Amino acid sequence: MFFTMERDEKELCTVLSTGRQGERDRMLFLLSPSLGLIKARVYGAQKSAKSIKAPLFSEGVFSLYKDTRNNISLKDVDIINLRDEISTDMDKTVSASLIAELCMNAKAYDEQLYAIAAKNLDALCLDISYKRVVIAFIIKYLSHMGAFGDYERCPICQKVYSNDEVLGYNSQIGASCCQNCSQGEGNLLLPPNARAFIREAIKADNTAVFSFKISEVQEDRIFRFLLRLLKATSLFEIKTLSSGIWRLI
Under CATH, domain 8-82 is a member of which superfamily? Predict the structure, then answer.
């Protein structure tokens, strides 16, 4: 199991994934700030119009039941944040799918990971560029996972970067670095302005990143750089990126 829980629990959760389970039921993957990743079955969801409804990416208070075999089922749910705006736009849906996929494959679960996911899923429902939301999420997610440097000094030789320095990439450590320590990964070069944005975003609050003033062209460059970095450093196949819906180069 991903966690320990009592026989009956009421927990704040977000639906990360939903799919058919046999002919009658559905299986949900839920993210909780206190219990982590939860696999819960919804009995009769495929056959009954009166069954419990928990839409993809929605947030609510879930009433969960654990049987003697440690199987979890959903008894009831009080949806408090439907987030149905996400499904109205393809790029927002892909962004939310990426957030959900990364959370489902996280190495550890805690309240901070839940907050990172929830804030950015909420942002997808607002008048905020989906690219900016993905940028903020990847930066905060990789920082939380301990897979991000500070973008102020080379993680290999410890040289402090100059203001106009273009960074390279070292695949052995899976990180941006100075050109002397680079292994020539041309599609992961990082120009000075983009590095300055990432450096400040690491230190800023998640929602503050949404208001950073940059051009749409610069936003697109940072967006694609972070997607390529994410793909290069991930220990698992990121299906959302492998789908080809977004152009990474």
Answer: Nucleic acid-binding proteins (2.40.50.140)
